[in-house]
Structures are given as structure tokens and as C-alpha cells.
Amino acid sequence: MWDIIVNATPQLVVAGLKYTIPISIVSFLLGLILALITALIRLSSKKGPFRILKAIFRFYVWLFRSTPLLVQLFIVYFGLPYLKLTFIAPDGIKLTPLVAGIITFSLNTGAYCSETIRASILSIPKGQWEAAYSIGMTRSQALSRIILPQAVRVSLPPLANSFIGLVKDTSLAASITIVEMFEVSQQIAAENYQPLVMYCLVAALYAVACSLLSWLQGYLEKVTSRYVTNAD
Amino acid sequence: MLKLEKLNKSFGEHHALVDITTTFPEHQTTVILGPSGSGKSTLLRSLNLLERPESGRYFFDDDVFDFAKGISVKDTLNIRKRTEMVFQGYNLFPHLTVLKNIMEGPIQVLRRPKAEVEKDAHALLKKVGLADKADVYPNQLSGGQAQRVAIARSLAMQPKYILLDEPTSALDPELELEVLKVLKQISTEKRSMIIVTHNMAFAREVADKIIFVEDGHILFDGSNEDFFKTENKRIADFISAMTFANI
User: Fold this and answer.
1) Which of A81, A106, B53, B119 is least surrounded by CB atoms within 10 angstroms?
2) What is the extent of the structural domain holding A75?
3) Cβ(A44)–Cβ(A54) under 8 Å?
């Protein structure tokens, strides 16, 4: 069994470094940007045509939280080539597996994280806005200087949850032909007939990656909470 | 000079301020008194546009603003630069040190050079007796210290008017005294202050002018001396209740 592990681990690690980790990081960063935009639009009190924009983003969050990630991946990768739009894409929307994966993971993470960010902004007491306004700040100054720095601390644990979830969910990318870590473990298992060892091995590698992230979360929480916990 | 003319503000069915007309003289301390829920905080917050009255005119020096027509973002920011609010709950920025709390407005809003602002901030901290607290975070302060920092933060903006909304209501008497001493000193410097308070002894001590509000109406608008010898039964009862005269 040891030589199986010794032989397979490097291949899995390479697949992880090549696909699992980059897909996770890129998708999470894009998702975070999308989440912040979504949260701010949904929290805006602007009226008029802006309400349509709010409705669109509310629909987006509903859509991606109400459907399975695997199904979303299938629609984007296998389904969109059949979506023939005159002028824009007359031959259907054909994406490479990697692009399809990153788009889907970003949209999915963005939908979940937007709710986290929205809630964390709402959790900051109204008095903080008022104090910011009182010293003459604009809404965007109040948001960027006073509210968001405090909201970051509140949203860190749930955002870390989402990131850790995403790292594991990238294993679904195997189903749209991306040769990430889990796909490689399947291929090796098919050759050496050791599914138990191979899948336990890949599970352990996911666990290592996620443990590192938990540690990073703890560190970031400590840094961003300097002002709450007394530095005795 | 600040002046309000026929100010009206409702919260749903509740008519919080009814045709309020009054002035807040410059270089004087105006104290707003009245029972809880009378509309005195709403009146104060309207001056800083944290509340938006539905109608009425707001005169600020040479500017006139009409609430019925709405006040533009630019005018709002302009008014807020000239008025600073001190809140009952302090509302210090918890993620910034005491010094940074004071420097935030002058740097971000007034765009003044950092070195100069920092020097002023240290001077203000000294003035409120907290020179040694510059680098601590607000959660390490007592209520009285926090409120004094909030006062320093408002002074740092060099406003024309400082608005204080029950600044000592959350404090025990000893901590209250710390804050009142600072306010007393500011009032002797002939700054323009408007204070909402329940502390009668303090009102009597610092007020040049007193406004008494009840059910959204002004029942008294005059000098400190006249207020405390008023013939008005309602006001006399209020004063006696607040000073525990007939306990």
C-alpha cells in the first residue's frame, strides 16, 4: 500500500497545484468581487430604474442558491453550446472546461458570499453610519472607511467557510473533464484497482488543504479583531 | 446663526415636531429640555440632517434650505461639515484608535495635512484630559472617557455648532461629572453648542438659552433665568420632578 501512496501522491499534488488550488483561488476572488457588488446593490436605497437592477441581482442570488452546483456546471459546460443567440453567439456558447468551471464556481460562490457580506454590513450598528455622516462623510466614504472595515471582521468566519466549501466543491470539476485532483485519483484508481486507498488518499489531501485554510482563517481573525479583544 | 421656521417632522402617524420655529444664537449654549419622546432629539438631529423634516425652512448663516423641496447631497455635506453631533452612545469608531478617531474627519473630509491634524488631535486629547489614551482602542475606555473622545472628535472638525444628544445619559454620576466639566469649559469658550439633556443642574449652569419641548411643540423659548422662574404650571412641574423637589 505504501508504494501506491508514494507513487500516487506526487501526481495528485501536481493536479492540485495545477487545477484545484488555482481554480479555488481565482473563483473565490472573482466571487468575492461579485458578492460585494451584489450586496451593495441589494442594500442600496436608490429608487426608480435602480429597482430593476436590484431585482436582477436578487434573482441571481436566488437562482444559484436554489440549484445544485453540479447541475449548474453541466448547464454552463454541456448546455450553453446549444444556446444559439443571433448576433451574439449564433453557433452556441462554447467554453473550455476551465473557463466554464471558473465561471460557474465564481457565480455560485458570489451568490452565497453576497448574503454573508450583506448580513455583515447590516450587523454594523446604525450609530456608526450616523457618526460617519456627522463628520461630513459621503455614503461611499462612510462605507469604505467606517462600515466595511468593521464588516470584514464579522464576515471572516462565514467567508472562510465558503472558501473551504469551494475548495472541496472543485472536485465536481472532474465531471466537466477538468483533470483536477479528484479526477486524477479516479484515473489512478481505474488503473491500479485500489479505489479505497486512492479515494482516502485524495480525501486526506483535501483535508490538508482545508486545514491550512482554517489556520489562515484563525490568523486573519486574530489580526482583524485586535480592536475587540483587549491586548492585555 | 441657526434658525428654524415652521419645521414639521412625522414618523408615520406620529407628528414628532409641529411647526417648530426658533433660533440658536451663535457663541451661546442652547439647552433643549423636555420629557422623553417629546421630540427634542428629533429636533437636534434635524439640525445635522440625520432626520429629514417634511417641511420647514432652515437658515444657516446666509444660506436658506427648504425641507419641503428636499436638500441636495452637496448641501447636506456642507451643513454636516459645519455641525457636529455627539451621541448618547458615543458611536466612536471601534476599529480605529482614539487618535485616529479624532483624525479621521479632518483628514478624510476636510482634507487637511496629516501632520497638522495629528498635532491638533493630541492637543484636543489633552484638553479633554485623555492625553495618555491616544493609542488605545475605544473598547478600552470607560463611558466617560469614550464620551470625552467623542467630544474631541467633534471639536476636531472645527464646526460652527456642536450638537450634543443626551451626552451623559448613559453614565453614572462620577463619569457624568468628567464629561460635564469638559462641556462646561467648552461653553465658557463661547462656542456655539446645542445640548439635549435631562440634567437640570447642568442646564442651569451652562445654558444661555433654554427651549422646552413637549409633544412636538415648543412650550418655552427664552433665557435661562426666565425658564427657572416660569409661571407655566407644566414647566414648573417638570422642573420640580427633574430636581426631585417634591419627592
Assistant:
1) B119
2) 2-224
3) yes
Angstrom distance (rounded) from CA A166 to CA A115: 16
Whether this model's ipTM surpasses 0.90 comes out as: yes
In a domain, A46, yes or no: yes
The structural domain count of chain B equals 1
pLDDT(A232) > 50 = no
Domain contains B223: yes
Within a domain: B119: no
Nearest CA in chain B to A130: B50
Of A128, A134, A227, the CB nearest to B137: A227
With cell 457636529, the residue in question is B84
Q: For chain A, how many structural domains are there in total?
A: 1
pLDDT tens-digit series, residues B42-100: 999 999 999 999 999 999 999 999 999 999 999 999 999 999 999 999 999 999 999 99
Specify the pTM: 0.90
A23, amino acid identity: I
Is residue B16 a part of any domain in this protein? Answer: yes
Q: Please enumerate in sequence order all residues whose Cβ is within 8 A of that of B151, keeping only pairs 6 or more positions apart, or say none.
A: B86, B128, B162, B164, B167, B179, B182, B183, B186
Mapping DSSP to helix (H, G, I), strand (E, B) and coil, where does residue B222 land? strand
- Gap between the Cα atoms of A13 and A201, Å rounded: 11
**Helix, strand, coil abundance in chain A, percent, nearest 5:** 80, 0, 20
CATH of the domain at A213: 1.10.3720.10
Which range marks the domain in which residue B206 is found?
Answer: 2-91+161-242
How far is residue A165's CA from residue A167's CA, in Å, rounded to a whole number? 6
CB contacts of B104 in chain A (<8 Å) are 135, 145
Residue A131 in contact with partner chain B when CB distance is under 8 A: yes
pLDDT of A146 strictly over 50: yes
Burial class (CB in 10 A: 0-12, 13-18, 19+), B135: exposed
- B191 inside domain: yes
The sheet with strand B29-33 has its strands ordered as: B83-86, B161-165, B192-196, B29-33, B209-214, B217-223
Residue A229 has what pLDDT?
60
Alpha carbons within 13 angstroms on the beta-carbon side of residue A124 total 29
